């Protein structure tokens, strides 16, 4: 058994080997205090291509977007000194959250490897795509509440899998759909979906609140909605965000599937440059990942009471619509449900 554990840890360590290195990259935090400062940050965050950035910056990524005054904004960049000077020139006072992002990633690698070696529960550590699929299949084989289905196939021939957790009642019970991992690097999102699947399926009949949730709703949960990107984030680039679609007109790979839906496609916050992390693709629903989400939600039409996409870092609840300040007709109902 000891040999098996050592071998497993060794394989996990290999999976963490990164070809993309973020040594010297910084994560800055700044808090806009004036309307002018907020407007500057908003405009910068909506310029997904280098032409709208301060000169000599190659990487500028908002990990926490500017939304309101006095709310912190997190900026990831390859040239922290230059970005700090730019922010200071606007009257803001930036602080450094991570002085060397690669060092942070290396520490998290060691923590995850050590946790697995110590025998932590599956839901307490990060796992590869293959391990997650194996876990779901084992759960479906051992727990009558759980079934697993393929809702799509990626460009690299990986299954997009959804778990259904149901206490019965046929296909008429109201449904809730959860999606995690649309942005490949947001590993805590994948883990959140896995944790929810585990809680619902193992604590039914033991905790009244969970029993009530399952008796009232069927739950459909997609824990890895961007398998190709997720695998790439393990093997090649820990901070990879998009899928792995080959773009015929560009050497740059990937589409931001979060911007590939038929809702103001190509609008604010999206780029038509395939080299951008916010490239929305050639057309709405051009990607297997967004098609899979569309199709499962259409199959739940008339049943779905909520559809939630889980991301990390921003610490906000976001409701439709993301591209306008106009509120949907059922906004008050959504807010009251939170």
TrEMBL record:
Cofactor(s) listed: Zn(2+)
Q: Which family does it belong to?
A: Belongs to the peptidase M14 family.
Q: Name one GO biological process term.
A: proteolysis
Write out the GO cellular component annotations: extracellular space
The protein's matches in PROSITE patterns, at most eight in alphabetical order, are given as: CARBOXYPEPT_ZN_1 (PS00132), PEPTIDASE_M14 (PS52035)
Alphabetical UniProt keywords: Carboxypeptidase, Disulfide bond, Hydrolase, Metal-binding, Metalloprotease, Protease, Signal, Zinc
Q: Which GO terms describe its molecular function?
A: metallocarboxypeptidase activity; zinc ion binding
Peptidase M14 domain location is 125-338
Name the chain's protein.
Answer: Zinc carboxypeptidase
Q: Matching InterPro entries, A to Z?
A: CARBOXYPEPT_ZN_1, M14A-like_propep, M14A_act_pep, Peptidase_M14
Which domain of life does the UniProt lineage start with?
Answer: Eukaryota
Signal peptide extent: 1-17
**Which Gene3D superfamilies does the record match to this protein?**
Metallocarboxypeptidase-like, Zn peptidases
């Amino acid at each position: 058994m000891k040999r098996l554990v050592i071998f497993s840890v060794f394989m996990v360590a290999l999976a963490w080997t990164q070809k993309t290195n973020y040594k010297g990259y910084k994560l800055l935090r700044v808090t806009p205090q004036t309307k002018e400062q907020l407007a500057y940050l908003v405009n910068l965050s909506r310029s997904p291509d280098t032409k709208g950035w301060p000169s000599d910056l190659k990487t500028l990524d908002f990990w926490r977007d500017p939304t309101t005054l006095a709310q912190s904004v997190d900026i990831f960049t390859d040239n922290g000194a230059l970005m700090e000077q730019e922010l200071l020139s606007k009257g803001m006072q930036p602080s450094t959250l991570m002085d060397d992002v690669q060092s942070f990633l290396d520490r998290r690698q060691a923590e995850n490897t050590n946790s697995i070696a110590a025998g932590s529960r599956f839901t307490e550590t990060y796992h590869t795509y293959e391990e997650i699929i194996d876990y779901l299949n084992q759960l479906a084989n051992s727990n009558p509440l759980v079934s697993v289905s393929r809702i799509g196939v990626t460009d690299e021939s990986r299954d997009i899998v959804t778990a259904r957790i149901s206490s019965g009642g046929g296909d008429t019970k109201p449904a809730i759909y959860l999606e995690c991992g649309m942005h490949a690097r947001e590993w805590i999102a994948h883990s959140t979906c896995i944790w929810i699947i585990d809680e619902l399926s193992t604590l039914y009949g033991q905790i009244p609140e969970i029993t009530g949730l399952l008796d009232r709703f069927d739950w459909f949960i997609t824990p890895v909605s961007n398998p190709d990107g997720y695998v790439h984030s393990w093997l090649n680039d820990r901070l990879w965000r998009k899928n792995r679609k080959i773009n015929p007109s560009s050497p740059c790979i990937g589409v931001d599937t979060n911007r590939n839906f038929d809702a103001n496609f190509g609008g604010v916050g999206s780029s038509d440059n395939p080299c951008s992390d916010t490239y929305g693709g050639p057309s709405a629903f051009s990607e297997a990942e967004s098609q899979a989400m569309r199709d499962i939600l259409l199959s739940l039409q008339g049943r779905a009471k909520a559809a939630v996409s889980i991301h990390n870092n921003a610490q906000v609840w976001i409701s439709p619509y993301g591209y306008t300040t106009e509120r949907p007709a059922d906004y008050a109902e959504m807010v009251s449900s939170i």
